[in-house]
Amino acid sequence: MQIKGKATPSQREKLRELIRKESTYEIPEELVERLINMGSIIRLRSGEAITRAGDIDPDFYILIDGIMRCYHVEGEAETERTSYFGLPGTVCISYHSYLRGQPSPNTYEVCCPSTLMKVRKEDFSSLIDSSAEFARWCLGNVQYQLYFFEMKGRTVQGPAKERYETILKKRPEIIHNVSLRIIASYLGITPQYLSKLRRQIQ
């Protein structure tokens, strides 16, 4: 992980746009600027973790560019199960750590070189405490997350081929930038079977 310091002018502009789009409630520019001013820019290599399962990390992150995923490990075979992918604008926070000070049950990692803004829990919480409007933005963000989880529940139904085609159609950047192994862990199939599906579709 490389800590780059404060956001550059171009990163600030990108963050303004992402923050406005990532919630059902739009906050005033003054609050957007306060949030960005609190943050530090970090750069991660492909496969590098934002937070690992078992770590206590209560901080707030927002993806500026790249792709991230959330996954956990199941069973004696320690099989990875990818719960979701995140594209620019996605908020990353372990609520186990943020709310309870407990280790994260999930690993959050980037799937390609990615840039994020990190805000310390203390600063993020102080903004919530001091601004009802920012608290409403946070609620709107959580509502968006719940909506996308419900949408995922619809799109990952049915045969694996159809689920892969849905990703190919709706999120082609994931297909182009994420390894077959990780996509297979999202679809719940083996990489070998995914390779077979890709050949059929091509």
Report on this model:
The protein is α+β, with helices and mostly antiparallel strands. Helix 4 (121-130) crosses helix 5 (132-155) and helix 8 (180-187) crosses helix 9 (191-201). The protein has one domain (2-155): Jelly Rolls (Sandwich), CATH 2.60.120. The chain contains nine helices and nine strands. The radius of gyration is 18 Å and the shape is globular. The strands form two sheets. The chain has a five-stranded antiparallel beta sheet with strand order 1-2-9-4-7. A four-stranded antiparallel beta sheet has the order 3-8-5-6.
Reconstruct the topology from this structure:
Elements: E1 2-5, H1 9-21, H2 29-38, E2 40-44, E3 49-51, E4 60-65, E5 68-74, E6 79-86, E7 91-92, H3 95-100, E8 107-110, E9 114-119, H4 121-130, H5 132-155, H6 160-170, H7 172-177, H8 180-187, H9 191-201
Antiparallel strand pairs: 1-2, 2-9, 3-8, 4-7, 4-9, 5-6, 5-8
